[in-house]
Amino acid sequence: MIRKEWFLITLFLLSCTNLYSFSIPKESLEQLSNDRYWKILLHIKNSTSEIDDPSFFLTSKENFSAKNELNATISSLAENNDSIYCRYPARVEWLKSKLPQLFKDKNESSCRKLEETLQKEKPNYVTLVFPTAYINSPASMFGHTFLRIDSDLRTPLIGEAINYAAKTDETNGFVYTYKGLFGGYKGYYSALEYYEKIKEYSAMEQRDMWEYRLNLTPKEIRKMLYHLYELKGIYNDYYFFTKNCSYNLLWLLQSARESEDLTRGFKYKAIPIDTVKRVNEAGLIEDVYYRPSKRKEMKAIVKRLKNPEIIKNFTKTYNLSLLSDLNQTSSADALDLAILRLKHQRSKNKLSKKRYIKNLMKLLKIRSKLPKTKPPKIKTPQNPLLGHDSSRILFGISSANEFNIELRPAFHDMYDNESGFIQGAYIDFFSFKIFRSRFQSFDFVNVTSLSARDSFFKPLSWSAKISLQRVHAKDIYMNFAAGVGLSYDFYGMLFYMLLSPGVNIGKNTLFDISPSVGFVKNFDEVKFGFRYMSRYFTDGVSEHTTELFMTFDASESVAINLKLQDDKIGGDSTTRAVCALFYYF
Amino acid sequence: MRKILLTALALTTIVTTAQAERNLNTGCGLGSMIIENQNTVAKQFVAAFTNGISGNQTFGITTGTLGCDKPELFVQNEKVEKFVADNMDNLATDIAAGQGETLDTLATLLNVKNKEAFEAKLKDNFDSIYATEDVTSAEVIDAIITVAG
């Protein structure tokens, strides 16, 4: 039925085409339909459009081509079809510059509603915002990106956040993952106040946010918003790895500045930070601003306390007599911490709204009687733009003349320099390893989240892994493992212990339990680490690995990894030194 | 292969990360904030994994002043009304501390010339601005205008 209608509409439009086409030479139409900007507006890559929603087009799916769509758009204009101005403001603007004769006799040739909004909102600046990983969930460690539109740089909070996300009310987790990975959901562009985004990321999820202000001009921003308006309510199939939130923003930026080919590549993965790097390479980034999470703010206040124990006690009991010996500034810090903690607890639904408001008002009233304090000093971490690229090849040679090779499409593991990444958040996908000159493992996914516990936040560390791997240096098994543990930060050194049970399916089924302990310490360009791991199998054999490693950056895309490794399998023990080269791309 | 991978994912979710579905707890008074629901472990992992997928965003979502009273003293300014209504807790916190981005933003929106004096004045009058626990955003705006003169 729908198809039939579309067919009729197309037929109608094609017939209209003939009405006007004598006034526009065929060649120029052909040429125009190959115009770069026209293809950007249609999201055309390799001659097909990436937009999946048929209602975005005037032509039917079967008849779609850049040329037919252009024909249909021009026909619609020639028909004096006024609704087209609000439906395709970006197309109309573009046609105005290319075919001014089309608009000669028209009184009005723009979308009034949209023009009024733009007049009122004055979109002068665009910022690309990158919230980093969710602290204890490296599964979200790829991060996310969205755009923020501001009229005034002094009030970023009320800026408009332009977000691309898949829409779902799915409650079944597995359906959710499956559909999320393989295009089962529809992604839409949406807009929301920036302060709502901050509440979501900075306050609730404790994610740092990086704000990259772009050098787009108000004129370019207008073009982008025209295009965004066309995409209102239009969906694309959402793919977690490729056609995701970050990738789809590139189309918007491209509609602002057509000279840059921002969407090129990204065939197998579009990791948010990689898209930010692309935008940076295109010279669009003008300024960087770091917005620390509430957790960082709390840590910074704790750091300057003279009586941390008393104050920590106060934030839990609200016992004012605890503050009687403190000076006014310390008392103010105590109140600020207690308020931050209270809000965090509420966001985690750990107390009722009624009790929360009661406590909040009580604390705020006391706080208002204490003096204004200096904002806590929060060290800006390394800009994620300067972190290593997400794909890595490793070539290594051991003291016993064996070679190691690893191929890792994404993303970041324990041996990589952590500058620009979240400490302790490791995630690898589809990592292929040759170890001691033969196949060792293929990890479908390997996630480790080492999240340090402190006086306010008590996260669990955890790990999850699915891989094909060699067991007892003999046979290949399919391994599923998941573990939990604890991590602590000690002078910037991250100590951890994990206990991970697993099941191995191969020529027989083996269970194993694997305790591990270790630490990592990252300096600017050098990283050290130690790890001890045992695996006790149900066949009575145990494996033990002890390793000490160091990685240092040799250049932007090359690092050297040195490792001293001892492996014990059953009774056999081997010790080797391994020197490896990491190449990032 | 996909099936294996996904079944495997299902097996490896013995993990307690917390994320997932959120409800937008909105209103005109204090205590309107995004609350996280503690959900099943598996779902949390999965939700974290499929970061960027969300169920509650539409184009131009407005949670703001809908259904809230309008301030009486203040010349109608939708931007200010919405901002205060949506940021009640953060604004109260900033006023009590005498500083902060939410308070700065409000001062800019109100075209305040001497920001420091404005912020100090509000801090001194915290008790009168937030007289009761169920104070509404409209009352807060009116009180701020009265205090700031």
What this model shows, in words?
The complex is a heterodimer of chains A (585) and B (149). Chain A is of the alpha+beta class and 585 residues long. Chain A folds into four domains: 2-110, no CATH class; 120-291, no CATH class; 305-369, no CATH class; 387-584, Beta Barrel (Porin), CATH 2.40.160. Chain A has helices spanning 2-21, 26-33, 36-41, 66-78, 83-87, 89-98, 112-121, 173-181, 194-204, 218-230, 245-256, 272-281, 294-303, 308-317, 328-347, 353-369; strands at residues 44-45, 48-49, 125-131, 146-150, 160-167, 185-193, 209-214, 236-238, 285-291, 392-398, 403-408, 410-412, 425-435, 438-449, 452-453, 461-471, 475-490, 493-505, 509-522, 526-537, 542-553, 558-569, 572-584. Chain A has a twelve-stranded antiparallel β-barrel with strand order 10-11-13-14-16-17-18-19-20-21-22-23. In chain A, helix 13 runs antiparallel to helix 15, helix 14 (308-317) packs across helix 15 (328-347) and helix 15 packs antiparallel against helix 16. Chain A is globular, with a radius of gyration of 29 Å. Helices cover 49% and strands 5% of the residues of chain B. Chain B contains eight helices and three strands; from the N terminus they run αββαβαααααα. Chain B has helices at residues 2-11, 41-49, 78-86, 88-97, 101-109, 115-124, 126-129, 137-148, and strands at 22-24, 34-36, 53-54. Chain B has a two-stranded antiparallel ribbon. In chain B, 44% of the residues are buried. At the A-B interface, strand 5, helix 8, strand 6, helix 9 and helix 15 of A face helix 1, strand 2, helix 2, strand 3 and helix 3 of B.
Q: Report the order of strands and helices of chain B.
A: HEEHEHHHHHH
| Structural shape of chain A | globular
Number of domains of chain A: 4
Distance between the termini of chain A: 49 Å
How many DSSP H or I helices of chain B?
8
Portion in beta strands of chain B: 5-15%
Cα radius of gyration of chain A in angstroms: 29 Å
Determine the fraction of residues in helical runs of chain B and give it as a percent range.
40-55%
Report, as a whole number of angstroms, the end-to-end distance of chain B.
Answer: 69 Å
**CATH superfamily heading of the largest domain in chain A:** monomeric porin ompg
SSE-based structural type of chain B: mainly alpha
CATH architecture descriptor text of the largest domain in chain A: Beta Barrel
* Gyration radius of chain B, in Å: 21 Å
Query: What structural class do you assign from the helix and strand content of chain A?
Result: alpha+beta
